[in-house]
Amino acid sequence: MPGPPSARRRPGEQRPGEPGGTRTLDPKIKSLVLYLAPSLRSSEFNNLGLAVLALFVLRVRLMSGSEKGAMKLLREGPARITKATIEAVWRRREKDQRIIIGDAACRGLALVVHQTGMAWRFDYKPRGTDPLTGKRFASRSVTIGNPQTHSPDEARQAAGNLKGQQQAGDDPGEARKAKVAAAAERRGRTVERMLDDYAKALPSRPKLRGNGKLSPQHIAGELSNGRAAVAAMKAETKPVAELGVADLRTLLRATEAQPGAAKHRYGAVSRFLDWCQDEGAIASNPCLLVAKSKRPKAVAARQHCLALTDLASLWLAAGDEATDLEPVQRDYLRFLITIPCRRTEAAKLDWSHVDLDAAVWTQPGRLTKNGDTHRLHLHSLALDVLVKRHEAAGKPKAGFVFPAPKSGKPLSTFSAIKAAVASKVDAGDWRLHDFRRSFATALGEAGFAEPVVDAVLNHRQAATRGGVLGVYQRAQRWPEQVKAMQAWGEMLANAVEKATQVSQKQAA
């Protein structure tokens, strides 16, 4: 008896959940069909059946190509893996085949064997759930090594360590990735690269002594000594974390004949490594591991002081056209004798910094050692040198007063300039910087107060005075500076005049 109308089925009608007439052995296609079929009408399902058939034929064709040669996977075990097990499975390996043998002695550990190699693998499932899906994490794997690097027992021990991390709530795979990334970062942090970063950081670092920031001159000197030290160690491309005591010993051997250079370079590289430690690039500064007895000793301060007669003789020698010096070099040396400034400050003197009418040279802070703007009174002997240079240059308003003859850059051939006149004057073992000491000594003997002499030399008050006075006393005492420079000029002029008279008598 036919059922009620609602239960009757039309020809070709399919109810939800009932199997259709289309069959496929492909699990992916089958799952798609079972998912879509309940919501489709009969006519739509018939169309879908044709589409599925077409996909099935396509998959069969593909299997005859790329999938036909897909690697076969064989799972074996668990069994206690031994050396004999490894040798046996290696002999029976086949092309396009991968064998995975689970280890019975350590859950999660497996030996993976394929045609060209073997590897130990630890399979685990991270604890907790994925915050995005709310489901447990999928299984993950970490490669430990291979039978050549790890015996079965060593592989089990390594797997046990990873299992301990997993049970503690850590992800061994992520930890391994982080470790590898950190190692790569350390390798990328070469000494040369870190020095470049150090150069960028130096302007914001405080002075080693005193207050304020480092001056451009101090920064340049620090970097120059640091790079010279690295070059002596031949460590430019070496990871900074691998820099050690052996490299520092190489530096000490390279500079043992230069006590001053050794002290400056070792100190510069030590401060650089302190910064690297602050940045987390190294664990500790290896300079501290060098025995104190082996570190460069402090160089005793020079005591050499030139008498006024020596300075006058050098003045005359600087004007001798028989020397190998260019006119600009001779004028530079004479100016350096008359004005107690540093050699680089004189070399970078610009016409825009000089007021010839007021007889004042104003040094910008960017060109001074301590970074302070500094005024100097130009006495008549120094002013004569500048006026001569100014007229010879066409009275420019700007530009270097003492440009290098060929490049036009500031003079830098200090050693050559000194050597050209040193052979003509017996003034002992003198240097250009000794002119400043000679000035301070002569003015002190003439009765000028030390603060006034320090002000002319542009010494920070805090560096030459202790206590509260050094902090609060900022007076420059300009009128007294002018008197001191005038007195110095008169001393030199008198000495030069006497030396000229002696020279003329000897020539006659």
Brief sketch in words of this structure:
By secondary structure, the chain is of the alpha+beta class. It is 48% helix and 9% strand.
Written overview of the protein:
A five-stranded mixed beta sheet has the order 1-2-3-4-5. A hairpin with a 5-residue loop joins strand 2 and strand 3. The chain contains 19 helices and eight strands. It is α+β, with helices and mostly antiparallel strands.
Could you give me the name of the CATH homologous superfamily of the largest domain? Intergrase catalytic core
Order of helices and strands: HHEHEEEEHHHHHHHHHEEEHHHHHHH
Q: Per CATH, which architecture of the largest domain? A: Orthogonal Bundle
Broad structural category: alpha+beta
Q: Class of the largest domain in CATH?
A: Mainly Alpha
Average per-residue pLDDT, rounded, comes to 81
Strand order of the largest sheet: 1-2-3-4-5
Major sheet attributes: 5 strands, mixed
**CATH third-level topology of the largest domain:** hpI Integrase, Chain A
Number of domains as seen in the coordinates: 4
Number of extended strands: 8
Q: What is the distance, rounded to the nearest whole angstrom, between the alpha carbons of the first and last residues? A: 157 Å
